[in-house]
Amino acid sequence: MTAEQIIQSLKRKADPQKARYKEAKFGIVAKHQLGIFHKDLNEMAREIPKDAELATELFDSGIYEGRLLCSKLFPPAQLTEPLMDRWTSTFENWEVCDSFCMTVYARSPLAIPKAIEYSTREPEFEKRAGFAIMAALCSADKRAGNEVFDKFLTIIIRESDDNRLYVRKAVNWALRSIGKRNPDLKRKALEIAEQIASRDTKSARWIAKDALKELQKEGLRIANYPRKIYG
User: Fold this and answer.
1) Which residue segment(s) compose the domain that 112 sits in?
2) Mean pLDDT of 162-189
3) Residues near 206 by Cβ (< 8 Å), separated by ≥ 6?
């Protein structure tokens, strides 16, 4: 199947009403959006072989849903830093940002250094990408030691005052995900949440309150990926 054949298939599925629904319901605003739900793109992706060249062609089509398909078809091991930076600079909403972070970036060898780098970016969705990678890594990389997530927790404290909606939500997502990675990180994440709660910004207090609510929930399922004992 060629990129052009896939693009024609996407155009046949176009539904402007769905695009309007996604904007009204989920705040997903995108240029050149055809109006196809994510679940339908997942079904399409299952029928298309993963291929870096094909995926890149779909991204370069400029069609929003083509870019989402790219995130589902690109082999993470073949990701390069220039390509990752080029894609990230185009992120215009949380859906495309999270799709790339969860299915490509967090599964690539570049995940940890780029998560740290992107957390310092100024554009909202580039910065969100840093924390979305952190959150996704909690399940994508089952071998990383706790020291990796210790670094992330330090960054989470630093950036907890950013009040932009899609940044603070991603900071919160990363904190909660780290806390569910193993029992030691849960204890550490709870300590960090308490520390963030004392900061004098609405964003920090919201991040901390929501994280504490989930991480203190009775019966919360905690994984047991590689551990290091604290204290």
Assistant:
1) 96-231
2) 97
3) 168, 172
